[in-house]
Amino acid sequence: MLNAVERKIEQFIEELQDKEVSSLYKKLPQGKRLRAKLILKIAGSSLPVVKTAAVVEMIHAASLLHDDVIDDADTRRSKPSLNALYGNKTAIMLGDILYSKGFFELNNISADVSKVVSNAVTQLSLGELKDVSLSSTFNLDREIYLEMIYQKTASLIEASSGAAALLAGKPKEVYMTYGRNLGLAFQMIDDILDITQDAQTLGKPALHDFVEGKTTLPYIYLYEALQDDEREKLRSLHAKALSKEEQGWILSNMKTHKIIERATLEAKTLIDEAIAVMDAHGETALSGIAKEMIERDF
Amino acid sequence: MLNAVERKIEQFIEELQDKEVSSLYKKLPQGKRLRAKLILKIAGSSLPVVKTAAVVEMIHAASLLHDDVIDDADTRRSKPSLNALYGNKTAIMLGDILYSKGFFELNNISADVSKVVSNAVTQLSLGELKDVSLSSTFNLDREIYLEMIYQKTASLIEASSGAAALLAGKPKEVYMTYGRNLGLAFQMIDDILDITQDAQTLGKPALHDFVEGKTTLPYIYLYEALQDDEREKLRSLHAKALSKEEQGWILSNMKTHKIIERATLEAKTLIDEAIAVMDAHGETALSGIAKEMIERDF
Lengths: 298, 298
Fold this sequence. Notes:
Structural class of chain A: mainly alpha
CATH architecture of the largest domain in chain A: Orthogonal Bundle
Largest interface: A-B, 36 and 36 residues
Shape of chain A: globular
Strand order of the largest sheet of chain A: 1-2
CATH superfamily of the largest domain in chain A: Farnesyl Diphosphate Synthase
Number of helices of chain A: 15
Order of helices and strands of chain A: HHHHEEHHHHHHHHHHH
Strand content of chain A: under 5%
Number of domains of chain A: 2
CATH topology of the largest domain in chain A: Farnesyl Diphosphate Synthase
Helix content of chain A: over 70%
Mean pLDDT of chain A: 93
Low-confidence stretches of chain A: none
Oligomer: homodimer
């Protein structure tokens, strides 16, 4: 069924009648298509469902293109990123093309689906902006972190579930709760992996987020757990290149205070809640996709 | 009536409930709001019309934000550009926020209007990409130039007229022809000004387009008018920093062959055609806005 989505995306791209865009699109990594899988699982594989899944994946690809420009990322899924290969200009424009073609196609699905999905794109752009702004501060507010990851990551997954529920005639709010929890957990785990994974596996420098100024959940919890003088030390290391020793200090304190366990438990709790909500609605098939979303290398 | 559009845009921005976005939006130059004026002239000032005008201006502002990042522009309307003040990241994201909020609001107007406008955004993004790609070639094909400026500039003006006609119950195709001609003429004049205006007035280096690799209409006509050896000289100057002498050579050849007159006549002919089409439909009020669009300092 995922093949039908791939073919629909290719058809949408061909409709643009632009050889350069067709060629650039072929160079983008397809990714795991988690959002499309989620939509198909909830709503089956009728034409409007396949179109919605294709649009959501195009929007997701567009957001990654802009994200990589913003993060000056050289790689995406262990391959050179499009901005690294063809420059920022091309990546920005290809993103705009995928966004706008996606929005155009939403008009051919339904107004309700279109509203849910386009609202999510506003949220994800607001979230990206907030992510950048927060990086210039030493944010210790968990609520602000949660709001930012809700906007940046969870909103489109929430909207995918919600749009699928609308198409399937299922209760929208329940499915949006499921998608929101999944999305929050997904980003929390991404942020944990930035700390636990080997720099080489990740293709980024060690503790990349913190060096970039991002105080993700584990740093917020670490700060809470530290003594006053240690707190000052952590603050002094924020948004700077870190020596091996400084990295070691952060990691050993995370270990001492069981920070990764605490943050991982929080993500898993969100997933358990999501599965429980779905089980209560007889949607046992949706627990698999929830697990797939968090089953990544720790 | 234009005030109602400004207030509607401000309302849309406030609805995002993000202080940073509200503050950034206030720093954007408002511009002449030509697209909003056009929409109001055609369709009056009912709420759907004001909303459509607000959305189109937000989309136009978004495209300028991305355009300035792509062109590494330091100024916009003689003021520092947003990317110059706050960096490319902020400019890209604010553009995405304005685009997506605009698309979201289109859902609250009508599916027909939404299709016309969102299709134009795809076209303008395709046009921007083509503009960048063509800059790495010495394009001498007038048709390719016309297609690119149609996509980059005329498509949104065409869509503005078309959307307004839909809202007013007027014949869409006729109004789209009017808007398309206006948009093509507008971009041709922009490209002529890059050659005729003083570098200081324009806030860009002299013959900026050609230095950037853009062979706009006057260069295509100049090449046609030159002898073989002169053609080779023109080709050798393409996409390079130009000495005063080289600038002088280009400008004096433009003068000898009356290139600016020829290109200006082509733009004026498009405007005259647009006015004639409207006159034939009893829309005499629309000739004023067509003239305003080309009445700029030569």
